[in-house]
Amino acid sequence: MTLHRRYKLPRKGMPIQLKIESNPAWYQQEHEIQKKSLLALERRFQRAPTNLRAEEQIRYRKERAKYINKIRKDKINGWKGFCTKAANPYGKHYKAAFRKAVLPSQLVALANKTPKRSQLEAATNILGQLFPDPSSQQVLPLSINTADDLPFTEAEITDVIKNMPRGKAPGYDGIDKIIVQSIHKKFPNLFTTLFNKCLQLGLYPDPFKIGNIVLFQKPGKHTKHQHIVQ
């Protein structure tokens, strides 16, 4: 390793050691070969005669799409394998995702519980505090004079789906905003019919009640203000 790669000599003071970035573990030699091949196709497309440029451009775009798709899949699979093999839940994969700005969330003790219990017991305790068992709640008198809710309209459903918050994490089923909007665009009456049928039957399907709950502390906020993601 040469001096120019390891050190940057400032005008005054001691030399500063530079950090040399290395490729991620999932990046293999085949990716580098495909990258060079793609660059060659790009140069061929740029230097092609006018009568052949359109054909070379199509070929280049197809190969670029294949390369991007492979990079995306290998990156996801590599990340999954890296997280699966991790023994420490707050190891390198945690630092890679959250950097050093977010500290690991601690499972606190609630309702005068001792903090010496296991993490599973503490998590169950937190879940019980956030979402109490309905059978333990006070039974309220049933009102039979309340008018039924009006059916949902297609315009109402469209407005809600259109204004879904950006960056919202998908639920337990993995269906995110883009998928919901794509389904609604293809089948405009699907969600309206589904929700009105649930309203008519007075039923809220159990799969709609399932969600992932993550407690973490946002930087700059007090520890008692835990942010809940469902």
TrEMBL record:
<protein>
    <recommendedName>
        <fullName>Reverse transcriptase domain-containing protein</fullName>
    </recommendedName>
</protein>
